[in-house]
Write a structure and sequence with these properties.
The chain contains five helices and no strands. It is an all-alpha fold. α1 packs antiparallel against α2, α2 runs antiparallel to α3 and α3 runs antiparallel to α4.
C-alpha cells in the first residue's frame, strides 16, 4: 500500500545543505569508482560516500521519520552497508560499486508510490 507523507519538517538552509551534500556525495562516487576502475585506493571515495550519505540520510530522516520504513529509506541503509562491506572486503569493492549504482538508479527513478511504500 502506498503511503503519502503527511508532513515534512524543514529548517532554514535545508535545501542548500542537501545540495552541498549531494555535490560532495557525487565527488565520492567519482573518486570511489575511478579508484576501483583504475587500480587506485578507494578509501577516500568510500569515506566521502559514507559520511555524506549518513549526513543526507540524517537530514531526510529528521525531516520525515517515516523514511526509515519506506523502500527508499531501507534502500539507503542497504547502500551504506554495502559501502562498509566494500571497505571490509576490498576484493568485492568493484562489484559492490556497480550494485550500488544499479540500486541507486532503480530506487531514485522508481515511481513515488514504490519509493515511499512502507515496508513495515
Amino acid at each position: 500500500m502506498a503511503h503519502q507523507r503527511k508532513s515534512v519538517r524543514d529548517f532554514p538552509g535545508k535545501r542548500w545543505a542537501n545540495l552541498a551534500l549531494r555535490g560532495i556525495h557525487l565527488l565520492g562516487v567519482v573518486l570511489f569508482g575511478a579508484a576501483l576502475l583504475y587500480n587506485g585506493d578507494p578509501q577516500a571515495g568510500a569515506q566521502i560516500l559514507l559520511v555524506s550519505g549518513l549526513l543526507m540520510f540524517a537530514i531526510d530522516l529528521w525531516a520525515s521519520p517515516s523514511l526509515i520504513r519506506e523502500v527508499a529509506g531501507v534502500g539507503i541503509l542497504v547502500k551504506l552497508a554495502l559501502i562498509l562491506l566494500a571497505n571490509l572486503l576490498p576484493e568485492l569493492a568493484l562489484a559492490v560499486f556497480w550494485l550500488i549504482l544499479a540500486l541507486s538508479t532503480l530506487i531514485s527513478h522508481a515511481p513515488a508510490a514504490l519509493r515511499h511504500r512502507q515496508l513495515f
